[in-house]
Amino acid sequence: MTEPIKKRLNYLSWDEYFMAVALLSAERSKDPNTQVGACIANRQNKIVGVGYNGFPIGCSDDELPWDRQGPFLTTKYPYVCHAELNAVLNAISTDLSGCRIYVGLFPCNECTKVIIQSGIKEIVYLSDKYRDSDQVKAAKRMLDLAGVSYRRFIPQRPEITLSFSLD
Ligand SMILES: O=c1[nH]c(=O)n([C@H]2C[C@H](O)[C@@H](COP(=O)(O)O)O2)cc1CO
Ligand SMILES: [Zn+2]
Hints:
By secondary structure, the chain is of the alpha/beta class. It has helices at about 15-25, 85-90, 110-120, 135-145, and strands spanning about 35-40, 45-50, 100-105, 120-125, 150. It has four helices and five strands, in the order αββαβαβαβ.
């Protein structure tokens, strides 16, 4: 009698899968300093929206600035759409009740408003590098009031490698 074949054990957990999709999406970003990706999953663990930070549709990447400093209008900040906003706008439904959003970076206050209004109930984030900023402080205040939970993604493996050569 031959032993039955056992299932593969090194498969991605749901958290790893959705965070990896968020990080892969971030690779589309042309922001030279911070690339952010977001992935929204529903209660059935189906991906319902993804996004990354970039300029609005029709606004050429070659026309608008990527600068971080200088007069406001000469920086990227008034023009760039954040990853979370794009993920919500790209989602298959405007009602994201009970969904989770996986993001590479803790959401700012503006994205937090969008997240709350969409019905998303949990944020899973990787970096909180702007935790001391007023934007993130305001974001956490609103999330606490609105009952939207947030937790840091704790990696169980250092990396996931993708290869285009499967042979
Ligand atoms: O939650 C976020 N989501 C998001 O997509 N972003 C984007 C906007 C910018 O393109 C970039 C932040 O740029 P910087 O780290 O150079 O300030 O990340 C920034 C935040 C947090 O501010
Ligand atoms: Zn934002």
